Amino acid sequence: MKQAGSAQVYLTAIVLIGLTGLMFVEPWVVRAALLLITVLCGYTAFKLEASRIQERWSEELHQQEQQSDTNVLNIVNRLRHDWMNEMQILFGYIQLKKFDNLQPYMEKIKMNMQQESNLSKLGIPSLIAFLVLFRVQSKSLQLEVALDQEVNLGQLPLGGGLIENVVRKTVEIFNRHTAIEADESGVLSLEFDAQEDHLLLDFVYQGSYDRVQLEEAVSHMLLQAAGLYSLEENEWQEEEAVVTLRLPFRT
To answer: What is the model's pLDDT at position 219?
Structure first.
């Protein structure tokens, strides 16, 4: 890679010298030779640059594929860990003969499975991937997506990528300004509420947070919204923060 870069520099220098010589050399034979050398060196330099770009692109693509594989493995490991915990609790109830606890706990598992099913049907694959990965990777903020029924966000008359952009920004803002202490963690609940002419994104955080910084970050985000969305409701308490954003449908 470095050798190709050095060769490209030399070829570029030769091209510049050749172009300069064409302006001052008189004999046509010499001018023709300089022109031929300049064209050949320029073409070679171009091919080297194209090859370098292709190699860099292939390397970046390979890194992205590796990261995607890592993300998938993290999700699988997280799901396996969660299900093992569920099974251990169920087996514990059975061994202790606490059969009265089995039905409500099974109902809880059933509700969680329905929530996961609704999450997978949100209609925006990149948003689904972000929400799932954040839940797997985040250490200081636990993200819960409240979905009592199916909603296809991809079919709503909103600008392309707007919902995902707003969700990402808001979740990252909460993640930066909450759970201040290293050993603390908070819970952020997100709910999607589709109305007749708008979509509400309801964020409810529970835990410790820096109120001043969080309010400033939300206000700054709204200033950059350019009328695409607005603040429907906000509430700041000692251990709870509520931010509801309104995304009007396009007419």
So the answer is: 92
